Amino acid sequence: MEIVRNYTDTELVRALKNDRETDAAIKFIYKEYYGLLEYYVANNNGSKDDAADIIQEALVAFIDIVQQDKFRGDSSVKSFLYSITRNLWLSELRKRNSADNRNRIFQKGKDETEQGAVNQLIKNEYYKAIQDLFQRLGEKCKQLLLLVYYEDLSMKDILDKTTDYQNEQVLRNKKYKCMKQLEQMIEDNQDLKTQFKNALKHAG
Amino acid sequence: MQDNFTPDVIEQLIRYLDGELSPEETASTEKLLQEDAAIKERFDNLVAARNAIRAEGLRQKVKGLHQQFYPEVSAVNSAENETAKIIKPSFGNSAKIILRIAAVFIFVVAGYSVYEYSTTSNDSVYADNFIKYQLPVSRGEGQVQQSIDSLFSANNFNGVIEIFKSTTEKKQKDYFLAGLASLETGDSKSAIDNLKTVQQLNGNSTAKYFEQETDYYLALAYIKAGNINEAEKQLNIIKANKQHMFYQKANEISSTKLRILKMKN
Fold this sequence. Notes:
The structure holds 2 protein chains of 2 kinds.
Chain A: H1 9-16, H2 19-42, H3 48-67, H4 77-97, H5 112-134, H6 139-150, H7 155-161, H8 168-188, H9 190-203
Helix pairs in contact in A: 1-2, 2-3, 2-4, 3-4, 3-5, 4-5, 5-9, 6-8
Chain B: H1 7-17, H2 23-35, H3 37-119, H4 122-129, H5 143-153, H6 157-166, H7 172-185, H8 188-203, H9 211-225, H10 228-239, H11 247-252, H12 255-264
Helix pairs in contact in B: 1-3, 2-3, 4-9, 5-6, 6-7, 7-8, 7-9, 8-9, 9-10
């Protein structure tokens, strides 16, 4: 295994906000904390595959929280990641054991920091449902929307990267069309929004 | 569900979300969002959609990195676990091996002890340590002496004993040969008596005959008779003198076997 740079919590959070350092920061998290998080899941009726899924989800939630400047550092990154993983896994277990297993129910946070993480987990659960809708879009739509909203590329940069669009206006129109299509799917799925609101209400 | 919004309104909300509106358009859109809950809800859909797409991008990135990093982390963890497995059971294996060796050792020692105990007897220790005495060649002695020497050299031990009994004037050598002859014929009591007499005669005389030989054969006679304490006393006399002609032989007699004989006797 190649040498992985060591980070303090402050450096790690800063690195996760910087696109060029994100990969190295995630690698550090894997090296330092993956074993601990995997051990927790594996020793609580989970398999290594369960652990892999839950840890990835926890990581996504953590990075999201960091990138939104919602990680205040009241607890260490290790404790925070452990708390997220624990909550996600307990919620997954409840979902598996529940007759109504469509949604995960998250445990209310013990303190303000944890509650912030719990709310983020609920939002992520809602986003996961929207991602299922997103997968129904065409490949070009998915690729374009990821370039716009995840890669944060400008219309010009996207135009340079692809030959699918004649000019910026065509590209922009395609973006509007794809977003409208996705928004309409969300709007048409009232249950999704209701569950999300209820989950937030329950957790709060 | 019935959609009451024109595509232009949704497009306006998307453009607002993406920061593409002019300041005037932005102001009018914000006013619209404050006044119209239904429009606000549609805008919330767009915000959720954008966040979900971002989360999807991040999820794909983490998934890719997981596939890259997990094998490395897993390999390190496995190596650590393997090391732990090797170290821990290694200790266990060593302990098992040591215990097995100890068990075998105990078994062997116990078996050997049982074997030694059961096979050690007065006669066996005597036989193991008895060496046949060879009379030195001497000239100019009397007829009786010639006769007893000849009989002894010819291994006619009963003849030696008979001649000894019929001899009226007995010297140390007569007692000594009679003592050895008694040993050879299995009469340890007579052997002890005769050899002790040799010691007494030597003690009363400046001329010492068969002194060191008597020390050793008397010890053997005591062993044969089962008097191990007296045998040890004789052996200790020999062991105390490195110049004693039976020093080596006395030290070869197993003290363990003597202890066994003591227990048995």
